[in-house]
């Protein structure tokens, strides 16, 4: 029985290879170096430096790392409340209805003769649709309550000393107590709001020498690029919360706890308060990259 199964697998492999040759897909690129193939765009071998985008969190200590994590979670919680106040569900539903009505009217006008179309009405409708589309797009990026839960779960895997963070979706889902699809949706919204970034990683499948996938996707490598990715107001809130927490730990002078980050394009005079704030901003930036 086992011999027959082995022959069957060999025949199937030969058939797949012959089909691929006829389709011009038999030549596979190398798995490393020039011309390497990857499963998806921006996917890198887990040993590739680009698949290791991590940086130490603050000074790498547990106390500072916990302060960083708590500040990020607090910022997400505040943003969640703020966004739902700005885009309540009732207004979002009304905007969707208005958008559908405007699109239907525009379609109706398109079916009429030019003499029947009110002057300027199509342009007005297009402007209204564009405005509503932007509002709805902003509303769709709102954080959900589950997003904060997923962020807490994700950050629980963070290594403060190295910044390493690469849990599988299933592990995040288990920690958050939700379905993996909920985790995927939450991660996308967290990324859209600048809380996290990630790169896809790949690993060898063990199918070397066979006409079969040579690589497979493994867990993402998550990292932080908050200063560049967060909205300005969100970044400022995060730095204020983080600075206050670090101040209580004695990591920075208490008198600088709520000042915004200085503009690096105009370096302040050495020894000034602005210089101290710029130094703090640089430290926060390094921790978020």
Automatic annotation (TrEMBL):
<dbReference type="Pfam" id="PF13730">
    <property type="entry name" value="HTH_36"/>
</dbReference>
<feature type="compositionally biased region" description="Basic and acidic residues">
    <location>
        <begin position="28"/>
        <end position="51"/>
    </location>
</feature>
<feature type="coiled-coil region">
    <location>
        <begin position="92"/>
        <end position="149"/>
    </location>
</feature>
<dbReference type="InterPro" id="IPR036390">
    <property type="entry name" value="WH_DNA-bd_sf"/>
</dbReference>
<feature type="region of interest" description="Disordered">
    <location>
        <begin position="253"/>
        <end position="272"/>
    </location>
</feature>
<feature type="region of interest" description="Disordered">
    <location>
        <begin position="18"/>
        <end position="51"/>
    </location>
</feature>
<dbReference type="InterPro" id="IPR036388">
    <property type="entry name" value="WH-like_DNA-bd_sf"/>
</dbReference>
<protein>
    <recommendedName>
        <fullName>Helix-turn-helix domain-containing protein</fullName>
    </recommendedName>
</protein>
<keyword id="KW-0175">Coiled coil</keyword>
